[in-house]
Amino acid sequence: MKIATFNINGIKARLPRLVEWLDETQPDIVCLQELKSSDETIPTAEIEAAGYGALYHGQKGFNGVAVLARGTQPVEVQRGLAGEEEDEQSRYLEADVGGVRVASIYLPNGNPQPGPKFDYKLRWMTRLRERAKALLAAEIPTVLAGDYNVIPHDDDVWDPRAMAHDALMQPDSRDAWFRILGDGWTDALRSRHPAGHVWTFWDYQAGGWQRDHGFRIDHLLLSPAMADRLVDAQVDKDYRGREKASDHAPTWALFR
Predict the structure, then answer these.
(1) CATH number, residue 192
(2) Over 90: is that where the pLDDT of 88 sits?
């Protein structure tokens, strides 16, 4: 089973690249982020024509997450996180597919920091941790996949000094990340690339892609049952270099 996460950066704008990637790589489950589209305007027919059933938690112009499943329909479990009833941002969607629980996650960016956006990011991470702990306690084989907007280690970025003041690398962001991991989750990509220097994002600005100035913010966190089945984890880097590509590359894990 191949499970992937892909911040598509606008599902309508990147639809040809998405369908192309689905056709060429055939992942079994895909967690998409940053759809930037309401549920009503998502190109559902094209996704279905590519052979995928889908669940969407969209939002017009911003955010938005989805779960796709090859040859079947994902079964929705939960959309959104408990803890802030007034939070209307579409950032979390949880579903069951083929005996596996997956969540598509688009964690808040948090910039500028300090400030209310950074405070929201940290609260959101606390809420995510509570949900993640409940999933561990239920012993459900789970993959929490998405754009976490956290650079966990200095070797997860081309130049730590360049991002030192960014919300993605603040001590509080990293602390919240490692608290989640410490509860019993495995960082799939890190487990296969312990030396780091594997990027999943390259900014459109300042020749980020051309100079390979990237960093790693797209992660798949595995419950113990899924970690035991992990075979490989990689980034489909070449897709970042295609015409009108997302600024993220698809990131995936393969399981027995």
Answers:
(1) 3.60.10.10
(2) yes
